[in-house]
Amino acid sequence: MKLIITSDYEEMSQISAQLVLSKMYSDKRVNLSLTAGSTPARMYEILKDFMADRPYFDNVHFYNFDEISIEGEQYGLTMRSLNEQFYHPCTIKKENIHELNPTNYENYDQKITDDGGLDLILVGIGADGHFCGNLPEYTKFENETYTVMMEEGDKNFKLLHELIGKKPEGATVTFGPRTVLSAKQVVLFANGEHKADIIQKALEGPVTTDVPSSVLKLHPNLVVVLDKEAASKLSK
């Protein structure tokens, strides 16, 4: 594991963008899976300056690693966020975007294999230790891409309903630990003091499904990028 501790969120975003770009400059096909949400927001702004209207990045393909369908919406929560933050601003062609959704998840791992495998997956970490859609109470380390069922009234349904202001629909689909660990490189990034406790548990505690992201340290090519607040409780 390579640990990079940066001074602040801006530097963390700059380093993360550099890691992504370093893969993209290959003269061969490159397959990337990048997170949505608030943590990568600045990174995507940086990437836009390098990527928008640049045809020499037509070799790069993108795979969303989870999805939450929204009632009455064409795209789920993840794809909607990626479209707004990244795909549209960076003028990524539709044919280079390979959408994971509840209708195709059963064949998605085989598709990734047929496409040459993932060169890099960039993930964040939740305060409960989840990564992608791998939640503590549902995760099995042997899972490939799978579904997490949600029923109206359960805590995950209520949480998402409050978050997005609309009803989530059906099941969440997500890369399982086995899919993530099959990538050639895994990058985990986090910022803020509120992530310090879970970062310490994930990186220095036991590998356990109680902290799903703890399994990531088993990957032989893991890079962890933190600001100093997120790293503040690490012993090393």
From TrEMBL:
Keyword Transport: no
Keywords recorded for this protein, A-Z: Carbohydrate metabolism, Isomerase
One MF term in the entry's GO annotations: isomerase activity
Stored PROSITE patterns: GLC_GALNAC_ISOMERASE
Source superkingdom: Bacteria
InterPro entries: Glc/Gal-6P_isomerase, GlcN6P_deaminase-like, Glucosamine6P_isomerase, Glucosamine6P_isomerase_CS, NagB/RpiA_transferase-like
Positions of the Glucosamine/galactosamine-6-phosphate isomerase domain: 21-217
Name by which UniProt lists this protein: 6-phosphogluconolactonase/glucosamine-6-phosphate isomerase/deaminase
Natural source organism: Breznakia pachnodae
